[in-house]
Specification:
The chain has 17 helices and 19 strands. Strands 1, 2, 3, 4 and 7 form a five-stranded mixed β-sheet that branches. The protein has a five-stranded antiparallel β-sheet with strand order 9-8-19-18-17, sandwiched between helices. The protein is 35% helix and 19% strand. The N and C termini lie far apart (126 Å). Helix 3 packs antiparallel against helix 5, helix 9 runs antiparallel to helix 17 and helix 11 crosses helix 16. Among the domains are: 140 residues, Penicillin-binding protein 2a (Domain 2) (Alpha-Beta Complex), CATH 3.90.1310; 232 residues, DD-peptidase/beta-lactamase superfamily (Beta-lactamase, 3-Layer(aba) Sandwich), CATH 3.40.710.10. By secondary structure, it is an alpha+beta fold. The protein is rod-shaped, with a radius of gyration of 42 Å.
Length: 602
C-alpha cells in the first residue's frame, strides 16, 4: 500500500512563500490518514461480524435439526464398538404336529459395564448385588476398578430386572439387545427339545446354538437364515405329550420309582406322538440342573433313548415270532417247560419259582411268560439266526432317531453269541437295548411285519420299510399278546374298548460296575399295541425300581407296576386321539366286578 507523505515538499515551499505555517499541512495530512485507517478498520470489522453471525446461525441450525431428529427417534442405549462380522441370531421355531409352539425366540437384553464411564463403582456394585443375589458387591467393585474397560454382568435380563438396573442411573451400565430361546411349555417334552446356549456373543447380538436334543441335532436347519421363517414341525402331539407325562409322573411317584419313561408311536409311520423321560428338567434353565454321578438319576439323561436296559420277558414275543416265521412252531405247538432244566451247566428257572408243568403251548408260553419255554424256542431257532433276526428288528443297534444323544445308546450283548446267550436272549436277558428300539420292534409286529424307523419329524409321506416277518406271523403274535392282557400277566391293561395287546417284562438291574445283577432291584416294562384287531399305536412304559405297596406285601413285578400305568395312559389318551372304543359284550366287565388279577408274574 502506497502512503502519501505527511509533509509534501511542493506544499511546504508554497506555504513558506505565502507566509503560512508548514506544520498545519502535516496536521491536516495526519488527520486525513487517520480517517482513512479508521474507515478501513471499520469495514473489516463489519465483514468479520457478518461472517461470525453466519457461522453461529449455521451451527444453531444444525444443532436444532439434530435435536429434532433425536426427539423423533426411538430411544436406544449407547453401543460399544465391536469388530468382526455380524452375528446371526435368527433361529426357526419348533412346533408340534398341530402347529402349537414348542420352542421360539424372545427379545431380551444383556447387561454389561463400560467401567471408565462408571460414576460411582462402589455404589453401583452394591445396587447391582441387591438386584442379583448371585453377585457379590465387594467382588464386583474390585472388578470395576481393576483396570479393565469392559465387563459382562448378565447374559439375559428379565424386563423387571432391566427396569431396576435402569433405575440405578449409572451411565457406565449398558443394555445389549439379543434374542434368547424360549420354551413356553416349561418341562413338557424337555428331553425331545434338549436346550440351547449362547455361542458367539457381542454387545448387540448373540448366537443361539443347540446343546442337546433336537435343538442340537437339527442345528443346521434351525440356524439357517433362509429357513428361519419356516418352523420345524414335530411328530409329537402336545396334548398327548402332556397326558403321558402327567400319568407317568403320577405313577412314578405312587410306585416310588427312581425314574420312568414312556413312548407312544404310530405303528405304520414310526412317528413318535409322545415321549417322556423322568425325572426331567426345564430347558429354559438347563444350565442350573444339578447333575449326578449316576446317569440313571440325572435329570438330563433321556431314559427313553439314551438308556440301554435288559428288558426281560418283552423279548419272548420276538423268539416266538421268528419261530413262527421259520415254520418251526404254531401257536398250538407244545413246548417243553419241565423242570429242572439246565443249559451249558447253567440252571434255567421260572420267575419266583413257578412250575408250569411238563409242557405248554406256544401261546401259553407267552401268556404265562415261561422262561424255560422261551429257552426251548430259542434253541430251536439257533444262535446265528436269532442274532440276525434281532438285528433286523434294530434291537442290536443304536436307535435311529433325530436326537443328538441317540448314537451313544449302543446295545450290549454277549460275545460270542453261544448257546447260553441264545437261551437268555430268548427271554430278554443278556441283551441290553434302548426303550425306543423296543417300541420300534413292537411297531413292526403291530403293522403286519414291516420294519419301522422311529422319527420325531412330522411328514405327510413315509418310506415303507423292508418286511421282517410275514403278515400272518405278525397277526398271530398280536393275538397271543392279546391273551397276555385278557388272561395272562397283564390283566390290569385290559382297558374296555381299546383291545390292548402286550407283553410284560420284569428284569433284574445289571450292576453298574462288574458283572451280575443288583439283588432286589428291577426294571419293569410293559410293551403294548392297540387296538389288537387293527393295531394303530404302540405304547411302551418302563419304571426303574418301582414297588407297589398298597397291598399286604410289596409287589415289584411289571404286572402290578408298569401295566397299570400304561393302562391309565391308554384310558386317558384314547379319546384324545379320536380312537373310537370297540365295545362288544365280551369286552365289557360285569357291574361291580374287580379287574382280573394277573395270572402269573415274571
Amino acid at each position: 500500500m502506497t502512503r502519501a507523505p505527511l509533509r509534501p515538499l511542493p506544499r511546504i515551499l508554497d506555504a513558506r512563500a505565502k507566509g503560512q505555517n508548514p506544520d498545519a499541512i502535516e496536521r491536516e495530512n495526519l488527520a486525513a490518514r487517520n480517517d482513512s485507517l479508521r474507515d478501513t478498520s471499520r469495514a473489516r470489522a463489519e465483514k468479520r461480524l457478518i461472517l461470525l453471525a453466519l457461522c453461529f446461525f449455521a451451527s444453531f441450525t444444525v444443532i436444532g435439526a439434530r435435536m429434532g431428529t433425536l426427539a423423533a427417534s426411538t430411544p436406544a442405549e449407547p453401543r460399544a464398538a465391536a469388530g468382526g462380522s455380524e452375528i446371526s441370531a435368527q433361529r426357526a421355531d419348533i412346533v408340534d404336529r398341530m402347529g402349537r409352539i414348542l420352542a421360539t425366540n424372545m427379545l431380551t437384553y444383556s447387561l454389561y459395564a463400560q467401567t471408565n464411564d462408571l460414576v460411582d463403582p462402589v455404589q453401583t456394585a452394591a445396587a447391582l448385588a441387591a438386584i442379583f443375589p448371585e453377585m457379590n458387591a465387594k467382588d464386583l467393585a474390585r472388578r470395576f476398578t481393576d483396570g479393565r474397560s469392559f465387563l459382562w454382568l448378565r447374559k439375559v435380563l428379565s424386563p423387571e430386572q432391566k427396569q431396576k438396573v435402569h433405575e440405578i442411573g449409572d451411565p457406565g451400565l449398558h443394555f445389549g439387545p439379543r434374542e434368547m430361546r424360549l420354551y413356553p411349555n416349561g418341562t413338557l417334552a424337555a428331553h425331545i427339545l434338549g436346550g440351547t446356549a449362547f455361542g458367539a456373543e457381542g454387545v448387540n447380538s448373540a448366537q443361539v446354538i443347540g446343546t442337546a436334543g433336537l435343538e442340537a441335532a437339527l442345528e443346521p436347519r434351525l440356524s439357517d437364515p433362509a429357513q428361519s421363517a419356516t418352523p420345524v414341525t414335530l411328530s409329537i402331539d402336545l396334548t398327548l405329550q402332556a397326558a403321558v407325562e402327567e400319568v407317568l409322573g403320577a405313577g412314578m411317584t405312587t410306585l416310588h420309582a427312581k425314574g420312568a419313561a414312556a413312548i407312544l408311536m404310530d405303528v405304520h409311520t414310526g412317528e413318535v406322538l409322545a415321549m417322556s423321560s423322568l425325572p426331567d428338567f426345564d430347558p429354559n434353565d438347563r444350565g442350573s440342573v444339578v447333575q449326578t454321578k449316576d446317569q440313571g438319576e440325572n435329570p438330563l439323561f433321556n431314559r427313553a433313548v439314551q438308556g440301554v436296559y435288559e428288558l426281560g420277558s418283552t423279548f419272548k414275543i420276538f423268539a416266538v415270532a421268528q419261530a413262527l416265521d421259520l415254520g418251526l412252531v404254531t401257536p398250538d405247538t407244545q413246548i417243553d417247560t419241565a423242570q429242572p432244566y439246565r443249559v451249558a451247566g447253567f440252571p434255567i428257572g421260572e420267575f419266583d419259582g413257578h412250575n408250569y408243568g411238563p409242557t405248554k403251548s406256544v401261546s401259553d408260553v407267552i401268556a404265562v411268560s415261561s422262561n424255560i419255554g422261551a429257552a426251548h424256542i430259542g434253541l430251536m431257532i439257533g444262535g446265528e439266526r436269532q442274532k440276525a433276526f434281532l438285528r433286523s428288528l434294530g434291537l442290536l443297534s443304536p436307535p435311529k432317531i433325530e436326537l443328538i444323544e441317540a448314537p451313544s445308546a449302543k446295545s450290549q450283548f454277549q460275545k460270542p453269541w453261544g448257546e447260553i446267550a441264545t437261551v437268555t436272549a430268548s427271554y430278554g436277558h443278556g441283551v441290553s437295548t434302548s426303550l425306543l428300539n423296543l417300541a420300534a420292534a413292537y411297531a413292526t409286529i403291530g403293522n403286519g411285519g414291516l420294519k419301522v424307523t422311529p422319527t420325531l419329524l412330522h411328514s405327510e409321506t413315509h418310506a415303507i420299510g423292508p418286511r421282517v416277518i410275514t403278515e400272518a406271523t405278525a397277526k398271530a403274535c398280536v393275538t397271543m399278546m392279546r391273551r397276555v392282557v385278557t388272561d395272562g400277566t397283564a390283566t390290569f391293561a385290559n382297558v374296555p374298548g381299546y383291545q390292548v395287546a402286550g407283553k410284560t417284562g420284569t428284569a433284574d438291574k445289571a450292576k453298574t460296575i462288574g458283572r451280575g445283577y443288583q439283588k432286589g432291584h428291577v426294571i419293569n416294562t410293559f410293551a403294548s399295541v392297540f387296538p389288537a384287531s387293527a393295531p394303530q399305536y404302540v405304547l411302551v412304559v418302563t419304571l426303574d425300581d418301582p414297588v407297589e405297596t398298597a397291598g399286604p406285601k410289596p409287589l415289584r413285578t411289571a404286572g402290578y407296576t408298569a401295566v397299570p400305568v400304561a393302562a391309565e395312559i391308554i384310558r386317558r389318551i384314547g379319546p384324545l386321539m379320536d380312537l373310537r372304543p370297540l365295545l362288544d359284550e365280551a369286552s365289557l366287565p360285569a357291574l361291580n366286578t374287580p379287574p382280573k388279577q394277573p395270572l402269573a408274574q415274571e
